[in-house]
Amino acid sequence: MQVVNHMKLEFLSVPENEGFARVAVSAFAVQLDPTLDVLADIKTAVSEAVTNAIVHGYGPALGTVAVEAALRSDGVLQISVSDQGRGIPDIAQAMQPFFTTQPEKERSGMGFSVMQTFMDRVSVESVLGEGTTVRMEKRLREG
Amino acid sequence: MEHVRRRDTMTVRLTGELDHCSAQSVRRELDGLIADPGIKKLVLDMGGMSFMDSSGIGVILGRYRELHGRGGALYVKNMNSQVEKIFLLSGMDQIIQII
């Protein structure tokens, strides 16, 4: 499927950039004129993925988070959120609802569940010590 | 954070965005507002809230546990559709009443 538009952001893994990332991706998606509900879904999913990169990928350390978005000719928005942080030891466990490694910080463990509910497709690649990439897709219009 | 206390009930109006970035300050402010053990009910008015992700679930559940532990309750109202979707996905509607 042909990519008709593409963008890439890189930013420091500080919480202040969570809002920046979700608004930027949402603004990029606007060109296909999605509904407000669909835009809200995209913003929420991006927020979860970027928060995971900041909180779990890097933790107290700082690193670079990369967010890419592409619009395909079939009306699908592709998003990837990547870090070069610690990696996820057990992806299947991490994706279980309410699983969290930080209950004392009141983390809900719902991040991946939100992504899976709000987007059409979610996949995760992770290598310990090298980082994690979350890929998501959402259909914005019929191709 | 706008708030009104009537007897044992604290009503707090949340505004803006509740994500991981803002969660700590919102948590701290809410904990200050319900620090008096005489407060048994917390009503979160979400009418001014434009965005919430799963970090907000943790904030709300944490306050629910505190109030539940003292025999109280937490209520939410005026959620927009995005916030309500997160709320329902988490199953919080099973333990927290929407008024």
Topology of this protein?
The complex is a heterodimer of chains A (143) and B (99).
Chain A: E1 3-12, H1 16-29, H2 36-58, E2 64-72, E3 76-83, H3 91-94, H4 111-118, E4 121-127, E5 131-139
Antiparallel strand pairs in A: 1-2, 2-3, 3-5, 4-5
Helix pairs in contact in A: 1-2, 2-4
Chain B: E1 2-6, E2 9-18, H1 20-33, E3 41-52, H2 54-69, E4 73-77, H3 81-89, E5 97-98
Parallel strand pairs in B: 2-3, 3-4, 4-5
Antiparallel strand pairs in B: 1-2
Helix pairs in contact in B: 1-2
3D structure, described in words:
The complex is a heterodimer of chains A (143) and B (99). Chain A has 143 residues and is an alpha+beta fold. Chain A has a single domain, classed as Heat Shock Protein 90. Chain A has helices spanning 16-29, 36-58, 91-94, 111-118; strands spanning 3-12, 64-72, 76-83, 121-127, 131-139. A 5-stranded antiparallel β-sheet of chain A has the order 1-2-3-5-4, with helices on one face. The mean pLDDT of chain A is 93. Chain B has 99 residues and is α/β, with parallel strands linked by helices. Chain B has one domain (2-98): STAS domain (Transcription Regulator spoIIAA, 2-Layer Sandwich), CATH 3.30.750. Helix content of chain B is 39%, strand content 34%. In chain B, helix 2 (54-69) links the parallel strand 3 (41-52) and strand 4. Chain B is globular. Chain A binds chain B through residues 15-16, 18-19, 22, 37, 40, 43-44, 47-48, 51, 54-55, 105-111, 113-114, 117-118, and chain B through 17, 19-21, 23, 27, 51, 53-55, 57-59, 61-62, 81-82, 85-86, 89-90.
Report the strand count of chain A.
Answer: 5
Neighbour order of strands in the largest sheet of chain A = 1-2-3-5-4
**Would you identify the regions of chain A where 5 or more consecutive residues have pLDDT less than 50?**
none
β-sheet strand percentage of chain A = 25-35%
Instruction: Give me the Rg of chain B, rounded.
Output: 12 Å
Helix content of chain A: 25-40%
Approximate strand percentage of chain B: 25-35%
Radius of gyration of chain A: 15 Å
CATH topology group of chain A: Heat Shock Protein 90
Helix and strand run of chain B: EEHEHEHE
